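Q: Hi! First time asking for a complex rather than a single chain. Here are the components, and I think there are three in total. Is that enough to go on?
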Amino acid sequence: MPWLTGRKIVEARRVDAPEGPKYANLDLAAGQRIAAVERRGKFLLLPLVGRTANEVPHANGDGQDILVIHLGMTGIVRASPPRGHERVRMQLDAGTDPVLYFQDVRRFGRFLVLPGGDLNLVPTLAAMGPEPITDDFTVDGFARALRRSDVAIKTYLLSQRPVAGVGNIYADEALWRSEVHPATPARRLARSRAKVVRLHTAIREVLLASIEAQGTTLNDYRTVNGEVGAYLEHLDAYGHEGAPCRRCGASLRKTVLAGRGTHYCPTCQVAPRTPVRTRSR
DNA sequence: CGAGTGCCCTGACAGC
DNA sequence: TGCTGTCAGGGCACTC
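A: Yes, that's all I need. Here is the structure of the assembled complex.
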């Protein structure tokens, strides 16, 4: 959304969306200018300029306000009116595409303003790990993070704390590629430097390859040009339960971990000593 | 406080 | 044909 940089927001208001933390403080956006369009993990961050800290007192008012957008599963930012499920409408200054629409069928997304840029209003942002495609994501730092938790490695990856931006599909793919069982306790994985290196590499490779292919379209996702992402065809594990593992030929399995469908090879993704805990949904 | 559970929400799809 | 039930998942509230 490069066309947003420098634009002034006339008004941002909820349409078919409830009042609450997912759509908080939208009134603060009015009159401010979008200074940049940035990204942290799966969150879009749009720093705003134009409101002085003493205009509206708030707890951590030392920084500039930030407009936060998370697309959830089905969210989309568009310049033309959506057919239904319109959650937020944002009026911009005159010019091309003067209205930004946030459509979100399943309401898993969010669209809010952080007063003073206080990330603590969004816990996942406040505790988010380094960006995987930058030099900030180091093997040492990753290993240190893994030593901080005993939860299953997949669960921990999904928490966004050891590294930013890894969702359910890419967690399964990275774990398959690095031959790590998804239920391996994070701390135990950290005991093997070689495994940590492999997973660290796999996360970067999977994300880079997916970006190259314009992402993964299961149903709703579209690129900024309205096209489907082609990475679906590159998936080795996700959605391939029952199919032969492309590495060893064993039949891939599907289970539930952290409440998410989890796909893995029972042969080359070595199971941890402790039993794999699954639960029904 | 760390860890585990279940909710939110709607459309697609299977089964009868 | 039309109904009912199940499944999909990012983030977080809740409980222990």
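A: The two ends of chain A are 38 Å apart (CA to CA). Let me know if you'd like any chain examined more closely.
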